[in-house]
Design a protein that fits this description.
By secondary structure, the chain is α/β, with parallel strands linked by helices. The chain contains 6 helices and 9 strands, in the order βββαβββαββαβααα. A 7-stranded mixed beta sheet has the order 4-5-6-3-7-9-8. Strands 1-2 form a two-stranded antiparallel ribbon.
Length: 198
């Protein structure tokens, strides 16, 4: 498969480093220390398992690391406008929606669970809504990290922006494994392995 490059250092005359990728993996969350440990940021946490040298991309609202043909990205926007990063980054890389993997929090799964799917509704998730709007399709891959529904009397925004409870390292690791399986062995294999996990 031909690779498309993003050029760094648009205004430099000397050698220009490039990004090349056949896959785009995006961990969803909100930037800043205030949100780092919240339920809404579990996608960021999983991305941190996969990439540790994210760098800014000129002209695109994201920090990115490319390794072995995969671009790992965090948007520098807030959750509700994540598409402003994902759309331009996917376009610049030439990565089509079926090779975009979005890792995100999921209210409709119990805390600790991880599920993998292609497409589907956004179920009220504003980050996914923004991505769908900017890609023009829902047909991208999702790694869904369960955070559960809020208890009675707690509003959804308050729930997703509150700190995670307990040790979620196993869930974070499982989500990262799901991404690696999709890239290396395909969606079906990833579903078989991840959905069988406890």
């Amino acid at each position: 498969m031909a690779k498309v490059c993003i050029m760094f250092g648009f205004f430099r005359r000397k050698r220009t480093p490039t990004l090349e990728a056949e896959w785009l993996v995006v961990g969803l969350g909100n930037p800043g220390a205030k949100y780092a440990a919240t339920r809404h940021n579990v996608g960021y946490m999983a991305l941190d398992e996969l990439a540790d040298q994210l760098k800014p991309v000129p002209g695109i609202k994201a920090h990115v690391q490319v390794r072995d043909g995969v671009a790992y990205a965090r948007s520098t926007t807030y959750m509700n406008t994540t598409g402003e990063a994902v759309g331009p980054l996917a376009q610049a890389l030439g990565v089509t929606p079926e090779r975009i993997i979005v890792v995100h929090d999921e209210l409709d799964l119990p805390a600790g669970k991880v599920r993998v799917k292609l497409g589907g509704n956004e179920n009220g998730h504003n980050g996914l809504k923004s991505i769908t709007e900017h890609l023009g399709t829902r047909d991208y891959l999702r790694v869904r990290m369960g955070i559960g529904r809020p208890p009675k009397g707690v509003a959804v925004p308050d729930w997703v922006l509150s700190p995670v409870e307990g040790d979620i390292s196993a869930q974070v690791t499982l989500a990262a494994e799901a991404v690696q399986l999709i890239v290396s062995e395909g969606l079906g294999k990833a579903q078989n392995v991840i959905h069988a996990a406890r």
